[in-house]
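pasting for ref
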Amino acid sequence: MGLGIPRVSIVSLLTLLLAQAAGAQDNTQVLPTVDVWATRTGTGIIGASSSVITAEDIARSPGMTLQEVLSREAGIQTWSTSGGKNGAGTTVDLRGFGATASSNTLVLLNGRRLTDIDLSGVDLSTITRESIERIEITRGNSGGVLYGDGAVGGVINIITKTGVALPPTARVEGGFGSFNQHEINGSAAASHGPFAVAVFANGVNSDGYRVNDYVRQRNAVGDLRYTGDEGKAWLNIAGDDQHLGLPGARLVDQSAGINELLTDRRGATTPNAFSSKTGEILTLGVSRMFGQNVELILDGNLRRKDQTIFSSLFGFDASDARELTTASITPRAIIDAQIFGMPTKVTTGVDYYNSALEAKRSVELNDPPFHTYNLRQQSTGIYAQQTTGVLPTTDLSWGGRLQQTRLSAHDRFDPAAPGGAFDAQATPLDSVETNYALHFGFEHRFSPALAVFGRVARSFRTPNVDERIGVNAFPVDFDLKTQTSRDIEGGVRGRVGALEWQSSVYEMLLNNEIMFIPFPPIGANINLDPTRRFGVENSASYQVTDSVSLKGALTYTRATFREGIYAGNDVPLVSSWTGNVGLSADLYGKFAVFDAVLRYVGERRMDNDQANFQPLIPAHTTMDVRLGGQVQNLFWSVAVQNLFNVLYFDYAVASSATFGRYNAYPLPGRTFIVKAGATF
């Protein structure tokens, strides 16, 4: 697609953008301003398919988790290796990446990266639903310019609430449901003059659908900020504590007549396995306005995660304990100006991230480790993105990023420790790599009711630390190639009376896609042969009456290998067809409201089935409903998930040698939850 622009040209482009913006004298501000607390680009990126989930959408969703809320959006699929307990163990996949979705979907919190350099992905269950103001979704890889590596499938930006301009308020809610689930949620906010404070906390206990499927989770976040005439300052502190049982899979082997999905669906293969995790996040920032057109922002962030995973299967024990710390500083400028008479917005800045991981691998929890992996990764990126209104009806956007990544990876190996006799030391790696991302997009509005948009873009994803470490029982090769992608996309959005709709078509060409092959003869992370994604995404909403509305989405996604021995085969864990339709009705004002979502997920290939010779994960259709209401300061709700008690699974790992043999992770049938609370 002609995106192989020399790097010196990118530097020249960034310099030109800054020079133009700095030299602009006209103070007329036409393009919309950027909410620095939300995202550096406003809602979406010019040329890209985007959507917004509001706080009301979240509150009225029949789904209990953020993943269930997100799954209603076009282009988003989910799969789970647990019983869906509070969303833990559920992966969100933008545009069909299957097993590597967590590394190809970039998650932001208030415009800052949450996605870490490990493979565990962002645990959305650690973010309280009540704390969310809105969620902005930008599909495709154009977010790579503003946010760096990993934004291949798209960007999910979660915007949290603040106490700015609010009188003292408080909210408390309790709930109980299936599998002995109990939860409590609380929040409070207040402001005085330029100062504002907000706190949110929740706790969830559940025994889970299966044996050893429990969850014990606590989350809290506090936000303090100052808002002045010429500047702002903020401090945000968050923490989470999570303990999960890991029941493992259910075995199906058609040749041996074994089907644990039928004989012992709720049993556990690993009845003693667990995951224990704590996390802390500290964010500090200030912003200052210079005149009416230039805002400078300086913010920094410190994240720390400690996690221990223990599993015992067929008499073989394994323990993995790790500590991951990431520090970042991201100064940037947002400039609104007139350049050659055209309204222009420039977002430019520098990102610096420094991550350190220590991972200890042992047999038993208290054994000395036979591997101690130490990895340090530093990335420095410079970027600029410009949006210009070339006509009153036409906007153009272009930008680029240069990012240098330094990695140092070493292994302290102890052959005398338990388990060490069957392994060997990994080869150390010290590398420096430079990558770039590009974006060019446009939007043209034929009328207030009809617009077309399109873009071309290039992005990249560096291997994460888990992909370098692997889990194989022979020497690790830390060295993997960087994954790259090239996108082209076009779409149309419009409004006809009470109907709003958006449709887009895209193609993604990827090289060196990184994937873990779990079984011999590979048993390690590899760079795949070139792959391709293409699809069509449609979404619409219709306000039937003042009190009744409909919302739906229909998506076709195809992920295939372009070259190599699997050329033409489907990439595992990607459903070709997904769709949903939802109904919201105010039955009696706010006193009684009803919401329902009918969701369809098509069949998909199992993990590890690149050869496409195993049976497919069956398609399934589920329905969630919710009835709720509010009387003065009291509110209540009753929600039922999977109303028709469909017994299904959406994730399985296939044998690479025996047809009909696979490990599946069953999901619950019908469940319910009852909640009630009050505001003060």
